[in-house]
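INTERNAL AUDIT FORM
Audit reference: QA-55
Scope: verify that the stored structure record matches its stored sequence.
Auditor: D.O.
Record contents follow.
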Amino acid sequence: MAGKSFSGIEGNHLSIIGGSGRTSQAEGKKGGKKDSRLCMFCRNRPLIGPSPEKRTSSSKVCPGARPLFLGGKYKIMIRFGELVYAPLERTARHGGKGTEMNIIQVSGTGGPEQLLCKEIVTPEPKAGEVLVRNEAVGVNFIDIYHRSGIYPLALPFIPGLEAAGTVAVANSLSPEFQVGDRVCYAMTMGAYAQYTCVPVGNLVRMPAWMDSRLGAASLLQGMTAHFLSGSTYPLQEKDTALVHAAAGGVGRLLVQMARARGARVIATVSSLEKANLAREAGASEVIFYEEQDFLAQVRYLTGGKGVQVVYDSVGRNTWQKSLECLAPRGMLVLYGQSSGLVPPIDPQELAQRGSLFVTRPTLRHYLLSREELDHRSGELFQWIREGKIQVKIDKTFPLEQAPDAHRYLQARKTMGKVLLLP
């Protein structure tokens, strides 16, 4: 590429360097005409460069935008106010062949200390995949199960199932997603990284009003609450549900969705602050499970009838009493085990207690088709946009502090979503 080029990086945008020096992102005066359209990345800066009639759809970037990869061969650069295309091998920086990225790797199962920050070569997407630049990564209890070996995986591995960001490298065989598209994904291993190769079938396009933090905070836990309340046990207006850990990430969303479906919710929490969050989410009654016998309280609150469903993410410490809280033909939904694994259950006990049902569902089996993914994510995003569902981000950690994020989550201190920021 003739002339002076640049590679200066600032935050989420690329700064122009060359000729007379650094171009101001705010003013964008050097070398180009202003354009009233908005940048596809920052959404609020005017475009700089050739006149609009000379632009292509790929040219919608401002002077501060990150470089874009085009079909794995070229990258958009800005030189003297004009958009130019440089061969990828000459400007390899983000996702290009041979470049490196930061990851969190688990080489041996155990405690949070097993989460080690390393640098590896940025992967190249295979057929049916795109490379996503992760801007926010969701931290979930299943990540702890993977790290600790409760759910064994081949070692070494990059943990994490959920993130949101921007498509950095697209695939010509998957034209539905292009470079620069803002996306989020779930149920894809390897999210604790700056870049992740994601199957196109797992990608969800984020609405224009949604930022990456909200996308990463809402998708996996939101779709989990969606299938638990709408499919595993389809809640109705006559139902009463007991929700454990009701102020946590999934718990708080589950309370809101149960109320949106017309059910009465009894919530269990560990503190006054969490009780307030559960009530704000729509819980009719709140039980402090560390101070009160939740079984006795549920029987009292239901007039001895019991509840139609218990959503239990705690596991070992609560499952037995959860079972005893159920009305005849009620269902115990075990969707987590933050206190430990549930021991084997004798089916005969289910008959003796009222022909009860017990299930251990997982999100993957409720996303068996593209139609299911689009339905669950679409309805979730619609409810968020309409204000029916409030997503609370509790705390964020830099990617390299993943061990601290796991300790925080394991301590059951959370009152919302925990995120890593690469």
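Auditor finding: record pair retrieved intact. The chain has three domains: 9-91, 100-219+369-421, 237-360.
Action required: none
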